[in-house]
Design brief:
single chain; 6 helices; mainly alpha
């Protein structure tokens, strides 16, 4: 997954700029998969680290002692800042469920059948839908929405209080 994030971003940026482009970055919140020490070393070895948006200038150094590892990594689980986590997963799930419902009367071996009846059918179903869903417009909408979430968080000086109140 980590390599996919970096390689696909690199390929997309090179396609846009029609040349070998090294001026691109990625951001993802603190998935343990991405922040693990071994992953971090591997990311640096592959040359990806310079493209990963991470805290700088001691931004997260004030975190409690048991959380100090955030001083060198993005923090927490913030689905509102991760478009795929925030709403695109739901779009993807809906697209699959819709196709499963639309093809449920087809024979199990029909080439157009979408089915979760076995793990291999489910995997095939996911891969078929992933190629074209969610649509580019929907992805762009949600990326822009996550940028607005950042503005809102700064304006409100955080996401909320422990009580859940906004005021």
């Amino acid at each position: 997954m980590v390599e996919h994030i970096f390689e696909e971003t690199k390929a997309h940026m090179q396609e846009i700029h029609e040349e070998d482009c090294d001026d691109w970055w990625v951001y993802h919140n603190a998935l343990s998969l991405m922040t693990a020490t071994t992953t971090r070393a591997w990311v640096e070895e592959k040359g990806y680290l310079k493209h990963w948006i991470l805290p700088e200038c001691g931004l997260n150094a004030h975190t409690p002692k048991h959380k100090r590892y955030y001083s060198q990594a993005p923090v927490g689980n913030s689905p509102e800042l991760m478009p795929w986590d925030c709403s695109l997963n739901k779009d993807f799930d809906y697209a699959i469920d819709y196709r499963v419902l639309q093809t449920h009367r087809l024979p199990e071996d029909h080439e157009l059948k979408f089915s979760y009846t076995t793990p291999s059918h489910g995997s095939y179903c996911l891969r078929r839908v992933y190629e074209f869903n969610p649509r580019s417009e929907r992805i762009a909408h949600d990326v822009n929405q996550s940028l607005q979430h950042l503005v809102d968080i700064m304006e409100w000086e955080g996401c909320g209080h422990r009580s859940g109140d906004w005021e």
